[in-house]
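Entry:
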Amino acid sequence: MATFAGGKFTGSHTTAIEPAVPLLKVLGKSDLVTKIALGFIKNKAKKAKGQAKYKIHEHKNGSSGIKLVVNGPGTVQEIHVYTNNRAAVEALIEETWTSKGKGEKKKRIKKKKR
């Protein structure tokens, strides 16, 4: 696990799970991203041996940004990425994920219309 603090990284939690590290390095350097807040790391009940994956959610309050949920072997972490160009950041995440050898496991969750 790596730690990220300062610059675009805010909040009191600074540790990231291993599958999220390449994403965070790229997002931290990107001009598209204004702020990144790392969430707590949750342990899964079962230690999975499967491939790491991520899901992209819209923020519940409609703010500019995304909630990125990264699943690793035995762990899950939510990462809040703030941006004014959500589509470009989603494309950057997808490009980084596939180029770092994490595979094609991804899901995009759209906010339900009321």
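DSSP finds two helices and eight strands in the chain.
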